[in-house]
Structure formats: structure tokens, C-alpha cells
Amino acid sequence: MPFWKVPALSARSQPKNHMVTVAKPQRITAILKRLAFAVTCSFLFFQAWLKFTTNLQRPPRGQPSQFAIDFERDSFTLAGEPVRILSGSLHYFRTPRELWMERLTYARAAGLNTIDTFVEWSSHEPEEGHFDFRGQQDLVTFLEMAHNLSLMVILRPGPYIGAERDMGGLPYWLLRKDPGISLRTMDTTYIKFADRYLTELFKRIKHLLVRNGGPIIMVQVENKYGLSRECNRTYLRHLRDLMRQELGSDAALFTTDRFGVGAVPCGRVEGVFPAIAFGAAANVSEVFATLRLYQERGPLFVSELYTGWYDRWAMPHKHVDRVMVASTLRQVLLAGASVNLVEGIRDSGYVYVDGGIAFLNGFNLGRYWPARGPQKTLYVPRTLFRKKNLLVLVELEGGFYRGGKPPVVHFEDKPELHGTVHKMDE
């Protein structure tokens, strides 16, 4: 930390004539009292504004409350009071369980009052009829951790959750059941298993709804269905009705669609609140004006504000201008909107196997490049290891072998850093 030195005035540099006025003690006391009063008023005003706009104080744990959408006041309400959602996305199934509390604590410390997470069907039912809600898939524990930190939760159970995941988060075995299955429609096979999955999920998390004393305030119906070629309203109505049946008629449901005149009407469904998704380069005023074409009253909710973007095979790393992100977020907040910040899924290894991917116990460790070796050492967080470990290496066809020798993987206590098995050809 730099220290600034102020040189003393020399006799030559000092002014010849100067006057020093000393205020009377009574006047100083009066000034200090006025200053203290002004500071106190400013602080109280700020506290009142913060409570009104974000309502960071959550009801005591286990105390039932009511979250609602107030169309008259264009606001979300919690226990009858206006609340602004300031949310960040954290996907429990993509984050090592040992880091859940740490990441949630960071979110709370950053001033967020809500956590948004998808629920991946393929992770919870990897094989037909075998549901897994333990360990890394222990959604209930993740939600309870968020609640212990006074964080509200937005749940997005799909069934489809996004193109960045294999089959959009749908389990592979659906294709085995019926190779001609029509996903995300009222296809008999698809809807049978989708209903079973959602029913099983809701049975496990229903007690964590806010009206039951839990943190879950909103549940999303499908995901960006307006971008789907199907645009099947019957399918959306079916999911809406199933969620109301399992979660209660007063559950706050919403849809999310990308900005665009075509996507919003196709993805919305009667009786479900529409939210919008867009990137940092969007014109915020234009986005909200478009949303108001289909939802004249009610709070504005940006359920996905992209602060980053995922990387794709053979393409440069995506960068989003931070100044632009901050400017867009500022416009969203000045409009009185609620917002959920999405960093962008950088873990492209689940989708694009672009030449060297290492998985340890299902977690993507990153890439090792066949053109350079591969690397001798990959860093592995200690929390990923178990008593019995499964290491999977996915390589380009023919890229792993050099000189006809089979690949060998060693586990070392003291790694050799900054090296590869083979040097890049000159």
C-alpha cells in the first residue's frame, strides 16, 4: 500500500499573512449534531429502500409463509411484503457436494437473496426406474443448506433443462424404450416417464416449498419451450396441471423464454407467469416492451441474464465485456425488475468431446491435448476422491497411442508439473 508524504512548509514558502479562525465549542457541537442527524436519516432511508426492494430478511426457518405474484402492484410478495429477487445460478449436480456450502455462502455474501438451480432428470434416474437422490444428487440437502443461509430458491425441474447438457438433461434410456420417441411432446412413452419422474421429485421436495416453511418460492415449467420446433401447448398445459396437482394450486409457476416476439408466445401457457432471458448486449427497454405485449401487468423478471457464455469445440474462448454486463444489470435494476444471473456453462466436456477429456467419478477434470502428449499431470481436487475411484479418459480416435504402446495412467503423490509425455512436433 503506498504512503503519501506531505512536505512541511518551509519558512520561505509559508504565506506572510494568514488568519486562522477557531470555531466556538458550542458551534462545533451543533454542527456535529446536524451531521449525525443527516447521516442517521440517510442510513435509515437506505435501509428502508433496501428492505423494500430486496427484502433480504427471510422468515425464521420452518415458519410457513406465502410467496405470490402481485399483478396490481407489479411486484413479487413474500408474507404480503414486496420482495425483489436477486438471484444467482448454482447447479448442485455440477458442483462437488463438498463445495456446496462454500459456494452458497459466497452467493449470500455477494448480496444475493435467491439461488436458482436446474434439476437434471438423467442424473436422478440414470437407469429406468432407479432413482438416485443420494450423495452428489442429494437435492434435499442442497436446498436445506440454502435455507440455512436465508436464501430463497427457484427450482427448475424440466423435464428438459437445456441444450448444454446431453439430451437436454433427459435420460438416454428413453431412446432405448422407443427409438422413434418424440421428446418434449405428448408422446405416450415420453409423457409416461416424464410424469413419473416429476411425481417422484415433487414427493421429495414438497415439504421445502415456502408455504411449508422451506426456501422454494418458484418452480419453472419446462425450459425455453418457445425455441422448440414443437410449440405444443397441450404439452405445456399438461406439465402445468401436473405441477399444480403435486405442489398445490397456489404454487408460483413460471416459464422462461429467450427474447423475441416468436419465442415468448410459443413458450408461455395460460395461468403461468412468463419470464424472459437475454444477454448483456440486449436492449433492456426493448426486451421489457416485448414482454409487456404478452404480460401487461405484474413484476418484470429476468430469469436468465447471461454474464458469460459456454465454449464450443474448436472455437475461441468466449469473453463477455464486464462493463457491458454491469451496464445491462444496472438498467434491469433501475427498471425495478428481479433478476437471475447466469454465468454460462463453460464445462463443454459433457457435450463436445473435443480431443481429450478426463472424468473422475463423473466429474469433468478438464482436457489433456493429444497433440502435446498428453499431459503428464492433471490437477484433481482432493474432495473428488473416494475409497473406490472410476477414472474415464475420452480421446480422439487414434490420438492416444504413440509408437503402438498402450496408454498407462499413474497416480502420483508428488506430481511432475509443466510437462507432457511427448513434445509437440516441430
TrEMBL record:
A GO BP annotation: carbohydrate metabolic process
Domain Beta-galactosidase galactose-binding residue range list: 356-388
The organism's place on the tree of life at top rank: Eukaryota
Keyword field: Glycoprotein, Glycosidase, Hydrolase, Signal
Xref: Pfam families: BetaGal_gal-bd (PF21467), Glyco_hydro_35 (PF01301)
GO molecular function, one term: hydrolase activity, hydrolyzing O-glycosyl compounds
InterPro entries, sorted: BetaGal_gal-bd, Galactose-bd-like_sf, GH, Gly_Hdrlase_35_cat, Glycoside_Hdrlase_35
Keyword Hydrolase: yes
Domain Glycoside hydrolase 35 catalytic: 75-341
Family assignment from sequence similarity: Belongs to the glycosyl hydrolase 35 family.
Protein name: Beta-galactosidase
Lineage: Eukaryota, Metazoa, Ecdysozoa, Arthropoda, Chelicerata
